[in-house]
Amino acid sequence: MAVHIFRRSAVYYWRRRVPRALANLVERPHLFLSLKTTSRTVARRLASQLDLILEDAAMLADSFDPHLSKSQIETMLRGVVDRQLVKLDRLAYAAKSSSDFDLERDRMGDKQAFWTFALLDAQGAAAVVRDEDRVRMAAGGLSEADIEAVKRHLTMLRRNNMVPTNPHILDHMIGAVGALPTAMNLGVAQGTYFRGMKLALAEIDRRYGGRRIEDVGFVDRMLMAVNDPPQQVVSPEAGIDLRRNDPPKAVDRPAAASLSMTDFSTFAENVIQQNAKDGHWDEKTQRQARSISNLFVKFMLQDQLVQGLDELDQQRVGKFVDFMRSEVYKHYGKSPKDEHRTIAELRADASARDAKSRGIGGDTLNRHLTFLGQIFRHAAARGVISLEKIDLVKLRSKGKKKRARDERAKLPIEKAEAIFRTPPFNNCAAWDRLAESGPDTLRRIFHCALYFVPILIYYTGCRREELCGLMVDDVVLDNGPIPYIHIAKNKRRRIKNPQSQRNIPLNPEVLRLKFAEYVRAIKSLGYELLFPDLYSPSSRSPLGDRFYKEFKPILTSAGVTEEGLGSHAVRHLFGAQLKKKSVVEEDRADLLGHGGKSETSERYCEPHEIAALYEFVQKLPVVTAHLEPHEVQLLPWVAEKKVAPFSQPSRSKQRT
Predict the structure, then answer these.
(1) What pLDDT is attached to residue 221?
(2) Are 510 and 431 in contact (CB under 8 A)?
């Protein structure tokens, strides 16, 4: 229609192709939105307003220059050179303190590294040693053996995935100057990184010749600073005329010891913002650090009656740790109400529960102490001496004594087979009664997270959240003959660690049960999230939590009631079955997203190709052979792109 509206199931929708000017900013070819009205007149009016908004956005985008400016590039270059100079200085100091230090050997090592990055700066990530490069290096004092060492250095950087530079490093460089990570900007950042590394490595005489430009006049400046009169701090108090010739009134700077407990929260916020800016902490980690910081301040003010940071000592911090170990509910922080409860109320809440529910676990406690340790060090570096004297290491929980493979209960394969005999996989009563059996004549199946995630955990070994947070584009069906899942950080969830990023081929059994058809059906509706039935706009909880809430009754009905046997136990079963099929540890680690335990298995290796991994996953025993493939049938509200029925508006919206 001329006003870009159409009707589906009596409801009008607005759909527009993304203007060219917005193509780099929007990740889909069309914009699709429900107008939530059955009136054609109202729909036309709303569509006209949306058209105007889209045109304004396109006009703004057309005038927006996403490219890095000259000053931004220079700022990035300064950052790379500064960080690398500091790192190289430290390495040089450490080398010179060694008993087997060889000046010429270390100088030549830096010179070889310099030429390596000079080639990368000149030729890019595909750099090679050409004949003219050999002439230049020979003129620079390199022998044939040294030139061969440069070639080996290039090969080593590529083998260890250091060339091209890790994308998160380039993203951080671009984000630090407030630019967008477009393809052009990533290319500029890559070149700037190579250039910065070359400039830093060129300062060989600085590290091994003692020629530091900042040393010139240093003693003179130091002596002059000692003899200078102390600087006075002017306070713009009311009534002071700064134009008078009277000497300004000096105001003493507050000593670190006079800082209050509320200043601890300021230090904590500084640490959070620094880690967020550096790309180390995502939003969830920031919330966790802020939560434990607020609880620490609350405990010191309300329980220990500590007002100033100078009053903090080992004993009081120890009492806080004891409070966390035994006097607070073990799931502290999961409820939004916890942030507003007093220490007395938190104690009362824990006391009302059984003994097993009191005190947080050792791993969680150690994570909290790690957050506090960063805040302590940040404050100590700024003069808070009392925090420097507190040893948090002594308060950490000791490691577990059990053997790692005995820490979790094991899921027998018979129990896994029982799970796939429950209603969601065979015949359920209705879309909102998936755990109940339906009439035998219907054989009703709904394709959703509850159906596919357990199947995928068993046949891929992925973690629950890795699957529940998959995007549609993370399922690769058209890149070669073997479809696979790409596990990486995305908009909806992070991944556990760097080695968790991996590709996992899809077992033929997964494809037999119409998984590829499900992916295409979800994609055709315009969804980005692969399992939209887990998403609620009113919740910040991990998508895996919603899945487990639905999966828990299925486990119970299958007789899986032992503590610790959940979706993660199915992942353990994946690894155990591959071990029984003689798949070696390093190959299982590639599939499970585990790191190697030695330098050889972790650094000097590359991940398997998809074809090799495909052979491994085919060795799994098939536990779903009895399941019949059905034509894809989505949950009705997913097919209609409605808000999840379990979504609940906030209290403020309920009141209005």
Answers:
(1) 64
(2) no
Consecutive H or E run containing 5: strand 5-8
The residues pairing with 17 across neighbouring beta strands, listed in sequence order, are 30
Tell me the residue length of the chain.
Answer: 656
Question: Which one, of 385, 379, 381, 295, lies nearest residue 332 by Cα?
Answer: 295
Whether the pLDDT of residue 361 is over 70: the answer is yes
Question: Burial of 244 by CB count in 10 Å (0-12 exposed, 13-18 middle, 19+ buried)?
Answer: exposed
pLDDT digits 0-9 by tens, 91-111:
888 888 888 888 888 889 899
pLDDT (0 to 100) of residue 62: 63
Residue 375 is predicted with a pLDDT of 92
All residues at 6 or more sequence positions from 50 whose CB lies less than 8 Å from its CB, including other chains: 14, 16, 33
Give me the percent of the chain exceeding a pLDDT of 90: 25
3-state secondary structure 503-532: EEECCHHHHHCCHHHHHHHHHHCCCCECCH
pLDDT for residue 41 = 86
Q: What is the mean pLDDT of the chain?
A: 81
Q: CB-hemisphere CA count at 13 Å for 236? A: 0
* Residue of 260, 277, 51 whose CA lies nearest to 176: 277
DSSP conformational letter for 8: E
Domain boundaries, the chain: 5-63, 70-208, 260-395, 413-639
The pLDDT value recorded for residue 445 is 92
The angle subtended at Cα 269 by Cα 268 and Cα 274, nearest 5°, is: 100
Q: Which letter does DSSP use for residue 568 in this model?
A: H
* HSE (side-chain half, CA atoms, 13 Å) at 251: 7
CA–CA separation, 569 and 552 (whole Å): 13
Taking the C-alpha atoms of residue 56 and residue 22, their distance in angstroms, rounded to an integer, is 11
* Range 64-70 average pLDDT: 74
Stretch 41-57: mean pLDDT, rounded?
A: 84
- The CATH code of the domain at 413-639 is 1.10.443.10
pTM of the predicted protein model: 0.48
Using CB atoms within 10 Å of the CB of residue 218, give its burial: 0 to 12 exposed, 13 to 18 middle, 19+ buried. Answer: exposed
pLDDT by residue (tens digit) across 159-187? 888 889 988 889 889 888 878 888 888 99
Write the burial class of residue 636 (CB in 10 Å: 0-12 exposed, 13-18 middle, 19+ buried).
middle
Full DSSP string of 347-393: HHHHHTS-GGGBS--HHHHHHHHHHHHHHHHHHHTTT-HHHHT--SG
